[in-house]
Amino acid sequence: MDEKLVFTKFKNWSENQQVLFTDLFPTIQKKEIFHIDLSINNTTVKTEAEFNNPTFFENKLSEIQNLHPTKIITGGYLEKRALYTSDIYNAKNSSEKRNIHLGVDFWLPKNTPIHAIFDGKIVCSVHQKDHKGYGGFIILKHTFNAVEFYTLYGHLSAKSTLKYKTGDSIKKGEEIGILGNYIENGKWVPHLHFQIMLSLMHYKNDFPGVVLESEIEFWKNQCPNPNLLFKSHEL
Q1: Which of 105, 136, 158, 222 gives 20 to 30 Å between its CA and that of 190?
Q2: Comparing C-alpha atoms, which of 197, 189, 139 is closest to residue 164?
Q3: What confidence tier does 87 reach under pLDDT thresholds 50, 70, 90?
Q4: Residue 234 lies in a domain
Q5: Helix (H/G/I), strand (E/B), else coil: 56
Q6: What's the pTM value of the predicted model, to 2 decimals?
Q7: Residue 17 located in a structural domain
Q8: Which domain holds residue 200?
């Protein structure tokens, strides 16, 4: 089926859905978010060195959290992140960098439990050990009548990936795993990378979280805005 038709089908279905942040993070009990900008013009972290320095970035996030104690620090969908400058973001056969972020980041402490927002099946559950990879990485497949889609959970703990195996069912509200620490989550300040996909394409045990700006129109149809589910005015 044409990817635009698949996208329209999902979008129409999502209009009758309302996912709460407390569905995804029930132990946090925070119902609102505070959006931060990590794009080219951001003032939170101005250099790649600041972004990749866990102590510096965590201190910045702590400052923001102290100012907004009842909210979850969030952001990132289709954000162009100039901070992605290292060679790992190089594109094959192109001088472009993969710097368009396809998911939403929820900046929360390590060990924060992550719960399923829909019934689903485990498509993959692996621990990626690559530098700046996903770390603990789980994808769920969801099917509702004729609507099929996937949700991705990146930067979990290594132990989280041992909880399930491919093909296992998971019910809405069940714990998927917990956020990993800096060492096990791909060398990132702890956070959840949450992403929706309408197809797994040719990927197995992996899926792009950042892509080329020149391909953004294609990826917008493959990876819809998670806010179609959350319906937040801030996201």
Answers
A1: 222
A2: 139
A3: low
A4: no
A5: helix
A6: 0.94
A7: yes
A8: 3-226
